[in-house]
Amino acid sequence: MLTFTLGTFAIALNHLLLISALALATFVGWRVAKRGGDNPESVLFSLFLLGMLAARISFVIAYWTHYRNDPWQIIDLRDGGFLAWPGVIVLVLAAVYRGWRRPGLRRPLGFGVGSGLLFWLLATFSLTIYEQGTRLPEITLRNAAGETVQLADYQGGPLVINLWATWCPPCRREMPVLENAQQQRPDLTFLFVNQAESMQSVSTFLETQGLSLSNVLFDGSGRLGEAVGSMALPTTLFYSNDGRLLGSHLGELSEASLARALENFDAPTPATRKLPCPASATC
Fold first, then answer.
1. Which of 195, 155, 162, 194 is nearest to 177 (CA)?
2. Is the dihedral of CA 118, 20, 233, 78 positive or negative?
3. Kindly report the CA angle at 58 between 55 and 64, in degrees rounded to 5?
4. Same domain, residue pair 120 and 178
């Protein structure tokens, strides 16, 4: 399960855990403050924003080569580009400083920050273990020729599976990024699994946008999204050679966030990946 869905509303579980951690920290800090001390609610929120800012800046620095040609992308937070640990360190140091400056905040702020961080760490670790224990679903799809194919047929090498639709603006924006990655990383197999649209509408979209994608597949009933527990688009999944889920990304991918996700896989080697031999050829 990658998203929490309520009606037409869907939110990534990792985002929900982050919001829940802030809510828990605020509640615990408020309860402790009632027994004596200052209410840390506003301080906790400012620390949260500071931690997120530090996490974003750290990510941009780490992947600066992907931002330097288009600096406006730095402020486009839709790519989900954050490094957690720098943000946590800055948050804790700022909390220590605020507690040192205001003695009345020390106990409520300490309990609030501690409970929020502990919840977030345990919940994130549990979610990661759960995700990496899931396998490539056994789903029947159709290829661009209208032929029935099994998703498992593509197992045997690292897989990047993108769930998308032409009506989805973030899907449309990230397509050139994925197209470029498909060309630059022949050691990986990229599958573009369209969700519940006709082949004609997808073909028209790709042609008008000038996109050249290999392995465009069609999931007419949206069963793959249900199987992986994601009702939000776009969703990108990263599988190992043996079909084990290595990671996922909900929302738009930028060059930087995709580069980070692809670190799950080994770097490409000069050797060309050996492809299956066609039935009509002699290998």
1. 162
2. negative
3. 135
4. no
